[in-house]
Amino acid sequence: MQVENKKEFQPKIVAFCCNWCSYAGADLAGSSRLAYPADVKIIRVPCSCRVNPMFILRAFQRGADGVIMCGCHPGDCHYTTGNYYARRRMTLLFSMLDYLGVEHGRTRVEWVSAAEGVKFSTVMNEFVEKIYSLGENVRLEDLRCKES
Amino acid sequence: MEVNQVQRIGVFVCHCGTNIAATVDIKRVLEAAAKEPGVVHAEDYQYMCSEAGQQKVREAIKEKQLTGVVVCSCSPRMHENTFRGAAQKAGLNPYMVEIANIREHVSWIHKNIEEGTEKAIILTRAAIAKVMLNAPLQAGQSKVVKRALVIGGGIAGIQTALDIADAGYEVDIVEKTPSIGGRMSQLDKTFPTLDCSACILTPKMVDAAAHEKITIYTYSEVEKVSGFVGDFQVDIRKKARSVDMSKCTGCGVCQEKCPSKKIPNEFNRELDNRAAIYTPFAQAIPNVPVIDRENCIKFKTGKCGVCSKVCLAGAVDYEQQDEIVSQNYGAIVVATGFDTIKLDKYEEYSYQSCPDVITSLELERIMNAAGPTKGHLERLSDGKAPKSMVFIQCVGSRCADERGKSYCSKICCMYTAKHAMLIRDKYPDVDVTVFYIDVRTPGKNFDEFYRRAVEEYGVHYIKGQVGKVAEHNGRLLVQGADLIDNRRILMETDMVVLATAIEPNPDVRKIATMLTASIDTNNFLTESHAKLRPVESPTAGIFLSGVCQGPKDIPETVAQAGAAAIKVVGLLAKDYLVTNPCVAKSDELYCNGCSACEKVCPYGAISYEDREVNDHGIREVRRVASVNSALCQGCGACTVACPSGAMDLQGFSNRQILAEVDAICR
Amino acid sequence: MHKTEKDKAILLREMSGANVDKCMKCGKCSASCPSYDEMDIRPHQFVSYVQNEDVEALLESKSLWKCLSCFACVERCPRDVKPAMIIEAVRQMVVRQRGGNYLLPDEVPELLDEELPQQLLASAFRKYSK
User: Chain-wide mean pLDDT for chain C?
Assistant: First the structure.
């Protein structure tokens, strides 16, 4: 029974990528044909600092099993300081999620530049593997949001 | 606000030849898209970005009265603008278009058709969910003031100003010292051609002064900057010169007669003295002296007034006050240049204690005919001609500690080869030794130049940094090690020249703060992109010229100055700037006036104002945030900082992103 | 227990706390060294020997016992590599290999110049008690 469950488990993973570095890095991963699991779905934001912690909570509420946020490397932000704000906000959010009992591995922040297609693909592979090992996220999922 | 009319969405799926179609079942994507609420049209095509493909989009918009368009194709970084253009041609607001990236993010990375198709459907669904909430946006316009400001009057500033002025635009140069010319005016000869620095610089200075489009403010500083690209308001403080520029004839009698003549001469690196009323050098532009009020007897004691008495033109004016000039500019160029670092932390080289240990810039002045020794090479301690000289490279450059700078100063290898060559040429009896770590001579004819110093002029190059320089029997003892011969070197010499590291002008931090231009840990101004936008600051409308951006020699500086000028001209040639409509917008009814957004904004685009708001029939004046859409770059930092949810980013609104999240997690 | 040259080089990096990879091979350490002429392996070479994992040669070098621990090299190194620390670490390695200390802490005289660097003191005792 359990084995079957594992087989069926298809994680929902949301990736927020900043337009200038990480989204371009994801494009590069694509044009370099560097595969990563199809469970990852990317949402484009102008900058990592546009990611409101609320978006991440909403994703979990709606049944996401993992959320990853990618931005420019510290110091390389297109908007100079955006990723610093993002880094702080995520540190706080993650410690809160930790407090709520959401496993630490379900969230991740990674800096991926526009030239790092390989890194993007490696990070996504690692992250998906981690989510597989953690299994389904039940802690924050709101069953009312679940379609039958 | 605006009542949502019933949305009519069109979905267009591109095959991209077989790029997408090979791993995504296009038909299934179309079927799934057609089932989504609001979708009234779905079609596919071989190459959506082609003219025929765009034609299909345009026709569908017209025929089906589409209110939103989703194109499932390659990355939005590739063709978003293409499809926005197509929408605009068909009369739809261009910002009602969203792209689902099913090539780079799907077909190119997933081999399994089942997986790929499913992911493509989800991404399409997310794009549809987002476009349902898109609002038509209008790109704004802001006017461009057709005048540029150049901060710094060295070769970088002069060249930039000349190039902008030649293109027909007004330029103002603000220079802190009493004359334009900068560091280059202090140099004697230039590498690798060995032509005289003044001979090539002074004509440019004269050109700049004579150019009808150029206004030069010397002895002036930028005091305040506000505004934004296209329309900066700048206050320039013209310090009181105490000499009427319109009356002075530049005869120089005042400088001769001034009784206060013991003031260290900055232009000669303080190796000799000047008067309290002075022009920095003979070819100064403008050739009008200034009174150094801190050292002038008249200003210190009230008694003297010699300069005023001897001035036949009656130009000396002790009552003159600082003057503030306010001017508007479309673009600002920073060309603040460099200085050499202080050597007080390098005790081992005895620079502070021995007058015969000098910096390279001091050697330039000593070699110069207008310098403190009238161009004779002599020891500053006893005036004797040296028989042996030692040059030490990388003093303060490439240092990992706090004594020096982490970077290579770039110009030292070449100017040391130049100095060595010039000395060997003019004084063949002087033995010249250069201690180096690496000789770095990339550049046209640069390595040949260095080899000439070794092969034709007999300059000794020894690999190994010097450990210590000390005074010894009236000469200097240099202790080093030859790393190639692996032997100790202890040599007596008469003069030691230190290739001192260069650093950005110390004032640049203050200027960068005023301009909100970013600056790195070494105080060099940051360029917008290290490779593709090297002369633009990330702050719109601010451009970089010369060493303020990084170490450079003269040809590189002139090239960059020209590049900065063409960028400025490109900006000034526009009457209006189109502003990105994806900017932050504050809802005044929700704003609680906390200033959180103002603090996180890297562009200073948010300000607070008291405004009358109508909150459900109650009229009251509230302190609310207001976004200057010309300054806002749309990063969204403020939207997250806002505790009341008043701030939102157009084009990437909270609702839009949440809709995408929901669609993906459905 | 048998250590390879590589292990020893890694151990030397740890013991000295010096980052030899920062070295730009300017030779200022050797240029500053008062014992330079007495040494068979020069201070700047110590750094590259560790980089190249050639530790055996260092252990046999007489330079170890010629270094005065004057710290001129540490003071003047533009890259903050600390050659004297490496030499001290090699000395320590030699001593450890011999096994057993030559001097007990109790034997250290109580009245000593407080200005003396501690490392100098330790090295001197090690040298003279051989």
Answer: 85
